[in-house]
Amino acid sequence: MKPGRVSHPMANRLRFECQSRCTECCRRQGFVYLTEGDLKRAAEFLGMTAAAFERKYVYRTRNRRRLKVPRDSHCHFLEDGGCSIHPAKPTQCRAFPFWPELLESRREWRKTARYCPGVGKGPPIGIQAARAVAREMREAHPAMYD
Ligand code: SF4
Ligand code: SF4
By Cβ atoms counted within 10 A, which residue in 41, 50, 61, 80 is the most buried? Predict the structure, then answer.
């Protein structure tokens, strides 16, 4: 490797293109954590106050806030064709699959490809661009990555 070149387990092989009408990642087990900015953006998108959005859709603990999970679905905003708040969806959803823990591990990236049909599709993604998204996720949720 030449000095200054970036080494990465998936360099040259990183391709991703989200597939129309797919909702696989929304149906996975786990929670969607929110930043305060995520909460305000989604509330505004729905024409609600942040307080009203929080009462209806958010479960808050001392250090974290996450979307409530409805009894009969994986997410209040999940519809057949996609996410009903797509333009204002939370950082965690928007950053997928470039989460730090998936991007930095060949094994995890392969596991992700088993359920995300967008992995391996589309034009190559520059590793720096992918890492910028991962950094955004890390900065949005520092407690997850301590
Ligand atoms: S699983 Fe992949 S292709 Fe499907 S909606 Fe999520 S990111 Fe897009
Ligand atoms: S907020 Fe939207 S993108 Fe995120 S899990 Fe719910 S339906 Fe999916």
Answer: 41
Task: Write the DSSP symbol of residue 88.
Answer: G
24 lines ligand 1 (CB under 6 A): yes
Residue 6 resides in a domain: no
Q: Would you say residue 124 lies in a domain?
A: yes
**Ligand 2 close to Cβ of residue 93 (< 6 A):** yes
Closest C-alpha to 57, from 48, 144, 95, 136: 48
Could you report the per-residue pLDDT of 89-119, keeping only the tens digit for each?
999 999 999 999 999 999 999 999 999 999 9
How do strand 58-60 and strand 65-67 relate by DSSP bridges? antiparallel
Domain that holds residue 103: 15-145
Helix ranges (DSSP H) in the chain: 36-45, 50-57, 91-95, 100-103, 106-115, 127-140
pTM: 0.92
What's the number of domains the chain is made of? Answer: 1
In a domain, 4, yes or no: no
